[in-house]
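Q: Okay, next protein. This is Nitroreductase from Flavobacterium noncentrifugens. I've checked the sequence twice, so it should be correct. Can you predict the 3D structure?
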Amino acid sequence: MSNHIENLNWRYAVKKYDASKKVSAEDLQTLKEAIRLSPSAYGLQPYKVLFIENTELREKLKAAAYGQTQITDASQLVVFASITDFGNPEIDSYINNIANTRSLAVENLEGYSNMMKSSISPLPLEARDNWSAKQTYLALGNLLNAAATLHIDATPMEGFNPGQFDEILGLTEQGLHATVIAVIGYRHDEDAIQHHKKVRKSNEELFINL
């Protein structure tokens, strides 16, 4: 656990990436597996995750992210896209996945399926989309922690135009919406922020023990 805390102290939101350094295929697979194993409500994972390396595409996305250089200088851009209008079809797909994975009859999961459907599907569209979007942040958190463990820099970013990202990546027609993004790679030697002391609230200010 002490190593984990050291890694969290090591990481920070890098502003300037070294464009010459790339994350290895092996480490990329580890990061993807960390995302895949992320917790989510009911285990539904109402999102897809795009790993983008294409330089021309990232130039377009950079313009939709207010010109932030991390978009193009980092090794990869990661887009967490929530599923829009999430409902019964996606729940049925998840139930089939459970049945196949655990060698169960779908009929035996009917109660669990109905419980999820009665909890999620009746919600107004806006509420369901907000719920899906929130789940992406759990996956983002797993990416940040796994990257820190590997000493790969990762910067979460909300400073982008989601609608423009949707258009550039063709997400809307896939029933997806860009919710949050991150870049991964390696800090540049000239990124002065790496020398700043980490600023966080004290335990006394942050935690309430009851």
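A: Here is a summary of the prediction. The longest helix spans residues 125-149. DSSP finds nine helices and four strands in the chain.
Q: Noted. On to the next one.
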